[in-house]
Specification:
It is built from 16 helices and no strands. With 441 residues, it is an all-alpha fold. The radius of gyration is 24 Å and the shape is globular.
């Protein structure tokens, strides 16, 4: 009898490159809108949508609070929900079109005035963020269920990060050029928009639409072969068993229990209460340490990226646009190292290699302060920073997947909640860095 989604999991490395590429499409699909929002949302609000700066500060503060809090709420909801087509893959199918619509809506400028303009900005940003969180959490929580071996998980995650970086590179390099192209097309009209308002809206719409076929490819190409929910599903019989089938079953040898059968010994994972999850996290010191490392990582990376703009413009006296060159070098370095991270992780050990990446990224971030104000040297230091910071960003998800496996052996499914908690730590780190930057300035 073949169990759904597990029929191809008979030992060895069953997932091919096409499936890894399909999984990686989730990183590119969300990467295009995320990069465009990260790089240009603040400029759009101040110079295009013309929202007062005080209102933007309050908007972004409450957005960050909501953004961090709803990660845990969404993770708890996804923990309780399960569907016939899978536990995580259906989100790619159902949310790809709404996510594209919300991306375009964030950069749409209706003819509202006064407080209604701020209400519209808050509503569209919250809808966009909620859809992004669900898609990103589903992709992260899916990792332990598409691959069981550490080396294969590393390859899946490396492809996802690789395609995400490519999306960021494209937006960083050509984003404003695409906005300018659409802004200058006098023959195009939509909702009375023109100039930069039209350019930003059409660019955001195009980037959102690109993600629709990418998410659909992930839905079609990825299999939840190690999902306990799939293992618990009853076999589908097309007809009632007869004597012939019974005799065939009697002749068939009974397979010896292996690690896979031990992992899915229970019929189905029981729902986990939110308080029980919090108590479990609080009592697991290694897991708390991992969350702390991820919080520190995002605080440092965000602080460096935000301060680079002011360092280039104020300390070096160069145009703020020159920051894009520094970002580009760092992204290219991250792109180059991704394919070899699985090999280096096996060679040196995941823990030691991840610690090396953390220490290297911190040291390279401090190098510009030691060698004075030099724009060429700042570009050079972006290279080791990109190389080193890519290592923990990749391997830390594999460590979290190990914790998920440990809970699965206890018949507890906490994958989406743990990965949602990772999102909470990342956004909390961004908020801390956002508060530190004004104090330093």
């Amino acid at each position: 009898m073949k169990v759904p989604f597990l029929s191809r999991a008979a030992g060895g490395r069953e997932a091919g490159f096409a499936e890894k590429l399909a999984y990686g499409c989730t990183g590119m699909a969300t990467g295009f809108p995320l990069a465009f929002t990260t790089y240009y949302l603040l400029y759009f609000y101040t110079d295009v949508f013309l929202i007062p700066t005080g209102a933007i500060a309050a908007l972004l503060f409450f957005y960050r609070v909501f953004d961090a809090a709803d990660d845990l709420a969404i993770g708890f909801f996804m923990n309780r929900a399960s569907f016939k087509r899978g536990k995580y893959r259906p989100y790619f199918l159902w949310l790809c079109a709404p996510f594209a619509v919300f991306t375009a809506a964030v950069f749409f400028t209706p003819g509202f005035g006064g407080a209604w303009k701020i209400v519209y900005a808050v509503l569209t940003l919250f809808l966009w963020e909620s859809a992004y969180t669900m898609l990103n959490t589903a992709a992260g929580a899916l990792l332990p269920y598409v691959a069981r071996e550490e080396s294969e998980r590393t390859e899946f995650n490396s492809v996802k990060i690789l395609l995400s970086i490519i999306a960021f590179l494209i937006v960083n390099t050509f984003g404003l050029a695409i906005v300018g192209f659409f802004s200058g097309q006098g023959l195009i009209r939509f909702g009375g928009l023109a100039g930069d308002r039209l350019g930003f809206f059409l660019t955001a719409a195009a980037l959102g639409l690109v993600g629709v076929p990418l998410h659909f490819a992930a839905y079609r190409g990825v299999r939840e072969r190690h999902s306990p929910f799939a293992a618990a599903a009853p076999p589908m019989l097309t007809s009632a068993p007869g004597p012939e089938s019974e005799s065939a079953s009697a002749r068939a040898p009974t397979p010896a229990p292996g690690p896979e059968s031990a992992l899915f010994a229970a019929a189905a994972p029981a729902p986990v209460s939110f308080l029980r999850i919090l108590r479990g996290i609080a009592g697991n010191h290694r897991l708390l340490l991992l969350f702390g490392v991820y919080l520190t990582y995002w605080t440092g990376v965000t602080f460096r990226n935000q301060m680079t703009v002011f360092y280039v413009s104020r300390n070096l006296g160069r145009p703020a646009g020159d920051t894009s060159v520094v970002i580009l070098v760092g992204l290219l370095a991250t792109l180059v190292i991704q394919p070899v991270i699985p090999m280096l992780s096996r060679r040196f050990g995941r823990g030691r290699f991840m610690l090396f990446g953390l220490c290297g990224s911190m040291c390279s971030a401090l190098l510009p302060l030691l060698f004075g104000a030099s724009y060429p040297f700042l570009i050079i230091t972006a290279l080791p920073f990109g190389l080193c910071s890519a290592i923990p960003a990749n391997l830390i998800f594999l460590t979290l997947a190990d914790f998920v496996d440990a809970e699965r052996k206890k018949n507890l499914n906490v994958s989406e909640i743990y990965f949602a908690a990772f999102g909470f730590c990342a956004k909390l780190g961004m908020g801390i860095a956002g508060g530190l930057c004004p104090l330093v300035l």
